[in-house]
Write a structure and sequence with these properties.
By secondary structure, the chain is an alpha+beta fold. 14% of the residues lie in helices and 26% in strands. It has a three-stranded mixed beta sheet, with helices on one face. The two termini are 20 Å apart.
């Protein structure tokens, strides 16, 4: 488990909301994922970005959702994986 050390006055801000890449998504199986983002080199406060995915177009695992987020919505998203 990673531990983050933040200044006492640090407040997590609302980040960007990424809409589903499928324009025909009707909302029946849309799922929102909140991802904690923090870059200590930028000097900015951490934020939560929200990604909306159509579960009908995503695999059954959270890793599938992360791969889809990175590939289709935000290529700057970085994560480690060691399974599959």
């Amino acid at each position: 488990m990673a531990e983050f050390s933040l200044p006492k006055n640090s407040v997590v801000k609302k980040g960007v909301t990424h809409a589903p890449t499928n324009p025909g998504a009707n909302g029946k199986r849309l799922k929102s994922f909140k991802v904690y983002r923090y870059d200590p080199d930028s000097g900015e406060n951490p934020r939560y970005d929200t990604f909306q995915l159509d579960l009908d177009e995503t695999g059954p695992m959270v890793l599938d959702a992360l791969i889809k987020m990175k590939g289709e919505q935000d290529s700057s998203l970085t994560f480690r994986r060691s399974c599959r």
